[in-house]
Specification:
heterodimer; A: alpha/beta; Mannitol-specific EII, Chain A; 5-stranded mixed β-sheet; 5 helices; B: alpha+beta; Na+/H+ antiporter like fold; Gyrase A, domain 2; 2 domains; 5-stranded antiparallel β-sheet; two-stranded antiparallel ribbon; 20 helices; 66% helix; globular
């Protein structure tokens, strides 16, 4: 699928500052709010946190995919961000997470929401690809790396 | 020879029956009583025959129904049963094995069959899914048509000397229509449905269906012109083809465009039964119009099904017509079997064998070659060719139309049945055998991404598995996947979108997902989300306070 349709320059970040799980989720939602992608910050954050409470989205090898469903968004909102220092995200392998993929999708509306998440996960399935992503210095570089293909 | 046979036999049969009724002083009530008794025998025998074939021979039930017809037909036991006060149970009527009234019911059944086939067609997949599939479908069609038609022309002593002779055209078009049901069942059993071969076969079959109907439309148009005594020249053929394709494209497009409008208008009736009945009425209407336009009724029925296939009513209609289908369609196949006159088969047995052999060869090569040229190796191409081998329902219907309209004689009709039976019986064992061994992809294509991964989830009970399967299907549809329910023994769903394809199979209390490596992320993630949503559900049942209380409310007062 075409990631360009969902990811834009103002939704990919190389410099997350937060150093806790809750902090990461809040920071990403804040940045999405600042980028004008979402209007109801609280509702979105609540959806993401609720999903996280059911089961951590910290996967393996430093990847986390916090996501949620809420009608506070009208269509899929997504972001990809890095915190190169690593943050404890209750991941499956216990390792700190460095790559964060967030999606917020509307509850009722149909669309390739999980498929987007799956596609990004597939792209960074290989260690070499993750290294390339982590080596990105600017928002531009991430954007190009993910949507260039 | 067709000119001689050109008179409409059904019409004749109908008149003959009416005369017979008059002559013998039998009232219409008497005729109906005869018909009802015939139907009683047909339904019971066909259903049992279908069951026996399926249960003990592992063959599709349609073959059993066909065989039952052969046994009880006027050329076998049916002609011997003489009921007092009624006469021969199944008598030949002016050279036609069924009375006009019985044939009428069989015709109605064939319309239902094609209407449902249209409804189940995955048009979205047809329009955007598989390039290889389209070439496989088209290759099989061209090879089967040309070889079937050509054989009739070169065969000595049958009076057919031109490629454009209506009987030759019919032999061509009868050998075209693949019946993929049995292949789908085997692919599901062998867990090969999500394999590159499986995906290509199933996509190819959709193309085969649609192109086959268009080809039939063209052939019907040509046959009608030459039956009218007119010489068919190339200019005219072009016109007929344009008309047939035009009818198909225009009516289907109009149907697709207005389907939602029409269905939302029909939905004002609120009652599902009324809605379904009206949709079926529309299918009959379009069937009649197609016949009036010089095509065949089944073409109209198929188009109506196709048009409605993308509306939310498709499932409802399928569901409601299932009962009618289960009773009427076996009558059709049984009547087709009854029409096989063994005494005229002897002289055409060799021709029939050659025709059947070519029917096998044409699909294996016609479908295998494009597959080989595109991304499969010999093994994979053979699998695809064999998967497209079985002919079935549609071939029988077309043969029936040919016989009823006098275009083909009973010999050719028998040959068509023979070919259908042989290809359908041969396909399963050959297909199973061909799937032994390694990958069917060429080395340079085989990057391991097509490796199928099997994810198995086991739940404490069948109910929970069913429930989750249902939810999973809905989640996939919400993600804009096309989910197709296949009518196989184990509940199987085929999931498609762009280049993603996988299958869901419910096996008792297990849910099995067969998914290519490259697509496993999306399958796993959607599965996980649905599993997690269960916890919400559990939470909400806890809040449903007092299940016990509700229960005792329900029970109290029962024994007052």
């Amino acid at each position: 699928m075409n990631l360009k349709k969902v990811l834009s320059l103002d939704t990919v970040w190389v410099d997350l500052k937060a150093d806790t799980k809750q902090g990461i989720m809040e920071e990403m939602v804040d940045r999405l709010t600042a980028a004008g992608k979402i209007s109801d910050r609280e509702a979105v954050l609540q959806a993401v946190v609720e999903r996280e409470e059911k089961m951590s989205t910290g996967m393996q090898n430093g990847v986390a995919i916090p996501h949620g469903k809420t009608d506070a968004v009208k269509s899929l909102v997504a972001a990809v961000a890095l915190n190169k220092a690593g943050v404890d995200f209750d991941s499956m392998d216990g390792e700190p997470c460095t790559i964060f993929i967030m999606t917020i999708s509307p509850l009722k509306r149909r669309g390739p929401h999980m498929q987007f998440l799956a596609e990004v996960s597939r792209l960074i399935g290989q260690a070499s690809e993750r290294e390339k992503l982590l080596a990105c210095q600017t928002h531009n570089e991430i954007h190009e790396l993910l949507t260039g293909k | 020879m067709h000119e001689d046979a050109a008179t409409n036999l059904v019409h004749q049969a109908g008149e003959a029956a009416a005369h017979a009724a008059e002559a013998s002083g039998h009232s219409i009530t008497h005729m109906m009583m005869h018909l009802i008794l015939q139907l009683a025998v047909i339904i019971i025998v066909a259903k049992i025959g279908g069951y026996l074939f399926q249960r003990f021979l592992k063959m599709p039930s349609v073959l059993g129904e066909l065989a039952s017809g052969m046994v009880i037909g006027p050329y076998a036991f049916g002609g011997m049963i003489d009921l007092p006060g009624i006469g021969v149970l199944f008598a030949e009527n002016a050279g036609f094995a069924a009375s006009a009234e019985l044939y009428g019911i069989a015709t109605l059944a064939s319309i239902i069959l094609l209407f449902l086939a249209g409804l189940e067609t995955d048009l979205a997949a047809f329009l955007r899914y598989s390039v290889v599939g389209s070439f496989v479908g088209l290759g099989g069609l061209v090879f089967a048509f040309v070889l079937g038609d050509g054989l009739a022309v070169i065969w000595p002593g049958n009076g057919i000397d031109s490629f454009m002779d209506p009987p030759a055209l019919f032999l061509g078009v009868i050998s075209v229509a693949t019946s993929v049901g049995i292949t789908a069942r085997i692919l599901a059993e062998k867990r090969k449905m999500a394999s590159p071969e499986g995906v290509t076969i199933l996509a190819g079959a959709v193309f085969d269906d649609v192109f086959g109907i268009v080809t039939l439309a063209i052939v019907m148009g040509m046959a009608k012109v030459s039956m009218g005594g007119g010489e068919v020249n190339w200019g005219e053929i072009g016109m007929i083809a344009a008309k047939a394709i035009g009818f198909f494209v225009v009516v289907t497009s109009l149907g697709l465009i207005f389907a939602r409008k029409i269905t939302s208008a029909i939905k004002k009736f609120k009652s599902t039964e009324i809605i379904v009945a009206i949709c079926f009425g529309l299918a009959l209407l379009l069937a009649g119009l197609a016949e009036m336009a010089g095509l065949a009724m089944i073409i109209g029925a198929y188009i109506m099904g196709l048009a409605l296939s993308r509306t939310d009513l498709a499932h409802e209609i399928e569901h409601h017509l299932e009962g009618v289908y289960n009773i009427l369609v076996p009558i059709f196949f049984c009547v087709m079997g009854m029409m096989v006159d063994f005494s005229v088969m002897k002289p055409v047995l060799i021709f029939g064998s050659a025709y059947s052999l070519l029917a096998i060869f044409s699909k294996v090569v016609g479908c295998g070659l494009p597959a080989f040229l595109m991304k499969f190796n010999l093994r994979g191409s053979l699998r695809i060719g064999l998967g497209m081998l079985p002919r079935g329902e549609v071939a029988l219907i077309i043969a029936g139309i040919g016989l009823a309209s006098g275009i083909i004689d009973q010999g050719i009709f028998g040959v068509s049945i023979m070919m259908t039976v042989i290809t359908t019986m041969l396909a399963p064992p050959l297909l199973v055998k061909s799937f032994e061994g390694g990958s069917g992809l060429r080395k340079e294509q085989d990057d391991g991404s097509e490796d199928i991964e099997t994810i198995i989830l086991e739940f404490p009970s069948r109910d929970i598995t069913e429930f989750l399967l249902h939810r999973f299907v809905r989640a996939l549809q919400d993600e804009e996947f096309f989910v197709h329910h296949l009518h196989t023994e184990q509940p199987t769903h085929r999931v498609l979108k762009d280049d993603i394809a996988f299958t869901l199979i419910q096996d008792g209390n297990k849910l099995q997902v067969n998914v290519p490596q490259a697509n496993q992320h999306v399958a796993r993630m959607i599965l996980l989300e649905e599993l997690l949503s269960l916890s919400d559900l559990l939470e909400s049942t806890k809040q449903m306070k007092g299940l016990d209380e509700m229960g005792s409310d329900l029970m109290s007062g029962m024994f007052a």
